[in-house]
TrEMBL record:
An annotated GO BP: signal transduction
Chain segments annotated as transmembrane: 133-158
Keyword vocabulary terms for this entry: ATP-binding, Membrane, Nucleotide-binding, Transmembrane, Transmembrane helix
A GO term for molecular function: ATP binding
Stated name of the protein: Protein kinase domain-containing protein
GO cellular component: plasma membrane
Stored InterPro entries: Kinase-like_dom_sf, Prot_kinase_dom, Ser-Thr/Tyr_kinase_cat_dom, Ser/Thr_kinase_AS
Domain Protein kinase residues, every copy: 238-504
């Protein structure tokens, strides 16, 4: 007990008080609860008016009222909470007695240190500077949140910069020159002007994020592809009135340009996120890919939040529309054989003639379009990738029934995956059966009975029975069956497939003694010379680098 100017003050150790109250409930010195808590700071006065705990007359009925923050003292489990209401003093009968003022010295910051109570006749003072603890915790939390926010912003900016750099390098690769007969024929579009040469092909920075920001004024660099305004396309399509079809990319409309050229306009659906990437791929790949068996991209439009691709018009639609229409397929065997040969030439150019090689990744009958002469061209390069990206796992993409089984198990797409898809198309031409309708079941059954060489007429389209040479059907079916082997190593490359299909026609022409055979041989020799010139040009360009 200590004496002061304020009167007689009794010195209590709080742990002792609680323990004493618990063991001897008749001792009123231990029967305390807080009514009004006032916390003093060296700078300001704080009145919290918070309730911590109540001790009832029955020492066995100890009810702590716990809120948010708690401090546990050494001897007994006594909770000091900073979020409550109404503290007070009570005697053994639980009557309120006195008010308390609480203060803690700046030096006494240890949470587990004993609290000292000084009691007088009218009031007690407890030294406990709890507010400093609260402020310290709050400041620490605020600093932690600020550091976390700064770290998050830094990571986002770093990833954005990496994406822009990677896309810039992809764009530069997309503008590689195409060599035809040893001549660099690449062109680069910047704004509305077409410029010869590949040196000005890349504009880096934010220009590449034209679909991320939907900026209408961003200039796209694309090799030799004209850019049209939305107004021009709207006028050419007569306000988008004549629809040709509907695909995953979006609707396709017929349009007549100011020059009189008839084109097909493919419009990206507004809710197609994947379509934006496919749009990008088609513009930059078809800007540098030119072959008579590839659908020609004649222009594009990025305006008013719309993305459109303008293709040459293929008046006879897709191969799928002829094979799987409601009525019988009217394609003759000669037309089917020619279509297979045309498609093989288109894929061969992608794999062997393009620099760098391109893997289509979505070869299917719906992407084979026919012109007015029923000649076939490969279309829809939205999922295509240059071979330099081969092996990246970007998720399964393609069409069920045409996808390479090895690709589905490894997520690795190769040239042989395109060969597998083309094998499916050849069987579609022979049978007129859709892959989703069990085509490969029929093929495997026929192969088991025919040993892969003869007897393919069992699955021949009934519209062709008696109208084609069974030997030619068997040869084409055997080629197709090699293409759909489960192991990619057992499949031929597309050049071998193309040559095998060409030999079917050559054998027929030789047998018929047609003068066209000589012309066909000349064309074959010219193709070999062109391919050698391309390879020689590539070697020269590499040495020049």
């Amino acid at each position: 007990m200590k004496q002061s100017k304020m009167g007689t003050r009794v010195h209590f150790d709080l742990n002792y008080v609680i323990t004493k109250f618990y063991t001897n409930p008749n001792n009123r010195e231990g029967a305390i609860c807080f009514r009004h808590l006032h916390i003093f700071d060296t700078r300001a006065y704080y009145d919290l008016n918070y309730e911590i705990i109540k001790f009832h007359s029955n020492p066995n009925n100890l009810i702590p009222i716990i809120r948010k923050v708690q401090y546990v003292l050494d001897i007994c489990t006594f909770f000091i909470l900073i979020t409550a209401v109404d503290w007070g003093i009570c005697d053994a009968a639980n009557h309120l007695c006195r008010s308390f003022w609480v203060r803690r010295k700046a030096a006494d910051l240890t949470i587990r240190s004993n609290l000292i109570i000084f009691a007088s006749h009218s009031k007690a003072i407890v030294y406990a500077r709890l507010i400093d603890i609260v402020l310290g915790v709050s400041v620490g939390v605020a600093i932690g949140l600020l550091v976390a926010l700064c770290g998050f912003i830094f990571v986002r900016l770093y990833k954005k910069r990496s994406q822009l750099q990677r896309r810039g390098s992809e764009q530069s690769r997309g503008s590689l020159p195409i060599y035809v007969n040893g001549v660099d024929s690449s062109m680069v579009l910047s704004g509305s002007e077409v410029v010869n040469g590949a040196t000005n092909s890349v504009k880096r920075g934010n220009q590449w994020s034209w679909w991320g920001s939907h900026d209408k004024d961003i200039v796209i660099s694309a090799s030799g592809i004209p850019r049209y305004s939305y107004k021009d396309v709207q006028k050419a399509t007569q306000n988008f009135t004549t629809i040709l079809g509907q695909g995953s990319f979006g609707p396709v409309y017929k349009a007549t340009m100011a020059t009189g050229e008839v084109v097909a306009v493919k419009v990206l659906a507004s809710n197609s996120k994947q379509g934006e990437k496919e749009f990008q791929t088609e513009v930059f790949l078809l800007g540098r890919l030119h072959h008579r068996n590839l659908v020609n991209l004649v222009g594009y439009c990025v305006d008013k939040g719309q993305y459109m691709l303008l293709y040459e018009y293929m008046s006879n639609g897709s191969l799928a529309s002829h094979l799987f229409s409601e009525g019988p397929c009217k394609l003759s065997w000669e037309e089917r054989l020619q279509i297979a040969e045309d498609v093989s030439h288109g894929i061969e150019y992608l794999h062997e003639g393009a620099v760098p090689p391109v893997i289509h990744r979505d070869i299917k009958s719906a992407n084979i379009l026919l012109n007015s002469s029923m000649r076939a061209k490969v279309a829809d390069f939205g999922l295509s990738k240059e071979e330099v990206y081969d092996g990246r796992n970007s998720g399964l993409k393609g069409t069920y029934g045409y996808m390479d089984p090895d690709y589905m198990s490894t997520s690795t797409f190769t040239k042989k995956s395109d060969v597998y898809s083309f094998g499916i198309i050849m069987f579609e031409l022979i049978t007129a059966i859709n892959p989703q309708q069990g085509l490969m079941d029929y093929v495997n059954l026929a192969a088991m009975s025919a040993n892969g060489k003869v007897g393919w007429d069992e699955i021949l389209d009934k519209e062709l029975v008696g109208k084609c040479d069974p030997e030619e059907v068997g040869t084409m079916a055997s080629i197709a069956y090699k293409c759909v082997q489960k192991s990619p190593r057992k499949r031929p490359n597309i050049a071998e497939v193309s040559q095998a299909l060409s030999r079917i026609r050559q054998i027929r022409l030789r047998r018929e003694g047609s003068p066209s055979f000589i012309g066909g041989e000349i064309i074959h020799v010219v193709k070999r010379i062109e391919r050698q010139q391309i390879e020689l040009s590539n070697m020269t360009s590499i040495k020049g680098v």
